[in-house]
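Technical annex, item 7. During the second reporting period the consortium partners agreed on a shared format for inverse folding records so that results from different sites could be compared directly. Each record opens with the tokenized structure and is followed by the designed sequence. A conforming record, contributed by the partner at site C, is shown below for reference.
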């Protein structure tokens, strides 16, 4: 069975690289991007099975990236797990619904929480929202 591809989009390069290492060690094929524009430019080539998306990016926000992804038929069903340390639970729940984001991890989170959330989302299949 092919490794599941996970795209990480986070402007904190050190954090994104750490996530990439954790996911690669757990058997995923992870790639990291440090801004939404670069990630959007590569999404059709990479064809990720899941996206880990920081909501507070420099330039194009994670909410904008999610909205764009949900606007195109080729990317609309890619599940997105948002990551944030900025928004409160109530704030991010409302914003996530608007952008079609399935679920959210509140930073800081540990590797086990991350892997469990990824497995849960991948088992449910494509995002139908």
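Designed sequence (site C submission):
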């Amino acid at each position: 069975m092919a490794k599941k591809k996970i795209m990480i989009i986070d402007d904190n390069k050190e954090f994104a690289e750490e996530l990439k290492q954790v996911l690669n060690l757990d058997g995923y094929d992870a790639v990291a991007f440090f801004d939404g524009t670069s990630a959007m430019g590569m999404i059709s080539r990479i064809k990720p099975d899941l996206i880990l998306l920081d909501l507070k990016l420099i330039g194009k926000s994670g909410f904008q990236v999610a909205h764009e992804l949900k606007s195109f038929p080729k990317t609309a069903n890619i599940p997105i797990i948002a990551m944030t340390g900025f928004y409160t639970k109530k704030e991010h729940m409302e914003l996530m619904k608007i952008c079609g984001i399935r679920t959210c991890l509140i930073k800081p989170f540990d590797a086990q929480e991350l892997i469990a959330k990824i497995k849960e989302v991948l088992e449910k299949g494509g995002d139908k929202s």
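The CA atoms of residues 79 and 127 lie 5 Å apart. The chain is about 45% helix and 20% strand. All partners now use this format for quarterly exchanges.
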